[in-house]
Amino acid sequence: MSLADDLRAAPLPAAAIRALGGAEGVWIAGGAVRDAALGRDITDLDLAVAGDPGPVAKALGRELGEHAFELSAEFRTWRVVAGGCGWQVDVTALRGDSIEADLAARDFTVGAVAVPLADGEAIDPTGGLVDLERGVLRAVGPGSFDEDPLRLLRAARLAADLSLEIDPGTIALAHRSAARAADPAGERQLAELRRLLGGPAPLRGLELLDELRLTTVVLPELEGTKGVEQGPNHHLDVHGHTLEVLAHTLEIEADLARFVGPERAAETAAFLADPLADEMDRATALRFGALLHDIAKPQTRQEKDGFVGFKGHDVEGAATIGEIMGRLRASRRLTRYLQALTLHHLVLGFMVREAPLPPRRVHDYLRGTEPVTVDVTLLTVADRLSARGAGPIAAPEMVQAHLDLAREMVGAALDWLREGPPRPLLRGDEIAAELGIEGPEIGQKLAELEAAQYAGEITDRAGALGMLRG
Predict the structure, then answer these.
(1) Which range, 4-13, 115-124, 244-253, has the best average confidence (pLDDT)?
(2) Integer Cα distance of 372 and 380 in angstroms
(3) What is the dihedral of CA 38, 40, 46, 47, to 10 degrees?
(4) Does residue 179 have a pLDDT over 70?
(5) Residue 248: which of 287, 208, 206 has the closest Cα?
(6) Domain 224-419 is of which CATH architecture?
(7) Are 451 and 443 in contact (CB under 8 A)?
(8) Average pLDDT, the chain
(9) pLDDT at residue 412 above 80?
């Protein structure tokens, strides 16, 4: 069978054929053709239509039992989505007066290939299938990045995801247009960064951002970590350390049983797969957090008597993340999540020398770091594994002590998430009446009782009253 026949036999294209019959003037284009050529499953479908895309989208929606809606009147695009199945179909009017003109207006040759829905072989005017065989990502034309500067970020992301080398001529075009990489709306930039960091090769993607001279434009704060030397606990500068933390974060994701224990691995994996915000699951957001956790070290670096420190880089980092996420038009939830990771990423390290922790200290950690306790604990593991200098915290026994404590805290945090905090033994109004207090003092007493209850120091109402009176 040919590429075209293989593609039309896949479930989504086959559904489109059933919905539209032998309709002329409809082509499968872009990523679906590319993925079919690579032997990948097709979960998204782009249809290019000569004429009005609305009726085509509605017919497809009826066939699939899903709702079709207009995505963009300006670009004459409709969409059909099946959220529970993880696929979507975009139906777009041709750009130009022919499918060849439409393909010539696309970004990269590997996506500028179309297959007629009804019958016929692949249409490949720019040599995209040959580029795929060669493992090359090449811009369709010299004006590709000028037409849409978001394609600069997309070049890094696609090359990383598809294991392609970027064509030298395309690299030169990217260098010429790199200063425009921050022109697209912040949310569009964030979407590309999300897909890059959440993809199969985020470290390669970040490397390509550097190679295309985009980091300094889109994430200048990350660029600013280059060359910032650290103290004896670290063997790399801040930028190198950051990338190593991300690498260890990926290692933890891939081998949860090793880091959280076999009995907790499935539960942790399910937790990380939960949607968080801005179309990210917690695992992808944690990768983002690994990239940004030390972002304020350059402006907080101090050196005195040969000692290098970064006092306050956690607090300053949260402020810097607010600025970055504001620029990228991120949601408040994602912003606060990333800020919380940065604010709390040092806490567990300071507790290692106290191990084994008494229950009250475990409670302090759970309350102090919620709602990111599991996430930030995993981040501290990646952070500690990335500090391989000659300083005391890099000693093998200290690293192992941190990993042991982190495993314990992940288990406690998962229990806390599943069961919730102890059910209060006394209400706030009862405490107020008993002690004759009001306002914030009531909250403080409730917190004290909760900590004592978590530690098993009190187990009933009488014990709680006794503690208050004592």
Answers:
(1) 244-253
(2) 12
(3) 80
(4) yes
(5) 287
(6) Orthogonal Bundle (1.10)
(7) no
(8) 92
(9) yes
The answer as to CATH 3.30.460.10 being correct for domain 1-128 is yes
Give the up-direction half-sphere exposure of residue 254: CA atoms within 13 A in the CB hemisphere.
Answer: 8
Nearest Cα to 140, choosing from 169, 116, 120, 180? 169
- Per DSSP, the residues of 218-237 read H-HHHHTTTT----TT-SS-
Residues 6+ apart with CB under 8 A from 132: 34, 37, 38, 110
Alpha carbons 27 and 114: distance in angstroms, whole number: 6
Task: Tell whether pTM > 0.90.
Answer: yes
Q: How far is CA 247 from the centre of its chain?
A: 14
Give me the pLDDT at residue 84, please.
Answer: 62
CB neighbour list of residue 414: distance below 8 Å, 6 or more residues apart: 264, 267, 268, 271, 374
CATH class of 135-218: mainly alpha
Q: How far apart are CA 263 and CA 242, in angstroms?
A: 30
Q: What is the DSSP letter of 181?
A: T
- In this structure, are residues 67 and 57 in contact, taking their beta carbons and an 8 Å threshold? no
170: CB partners within 8 A, 6+ apart: 108, 137, 138, 139, 155
pLDDT > 80? residue 306: no
CA atoms within 13 A on the CB side of 77: 12
Cβ-based burial of 60 (10 A; exposed 0-12, middle 13-18, buried ≥19): buried
Structure-token pair, residue 245: 């933390």
List the chain domain ranges: 1-128, 135-218, 224-419, 428-469
Q: Is the pLDDT of residue 1 over 70?
A: no
> How far apart are alpha carbons 210 and 71 in whole angstroms?
33
Segment 239-296, tens digit of pLDDT: 999 999 999 999 999 999 999 999 999 999 999 999 999 999 999 999 999 999 999 9
The angle at the Cα of 29, spanning 25 to 33, to the nearest 5 degrees, equals: 130
How far is C-alpha 213 from the geometric centre of its chain's CA atoms? 22
For the residues 58-76, what does the mean pLDDT come to? 85
Grouping H, G, I as helix, E, B as strand and the rest as coil, residue 28 is strand
C-alpha distance across the termini of the chain, in Å:
83
Residue 124, sorted as left (phi over 0), alpha (psi -120 to 50) or beta, turns out to be beta
The whole-number average pLDDT for the span 149-170 is 97
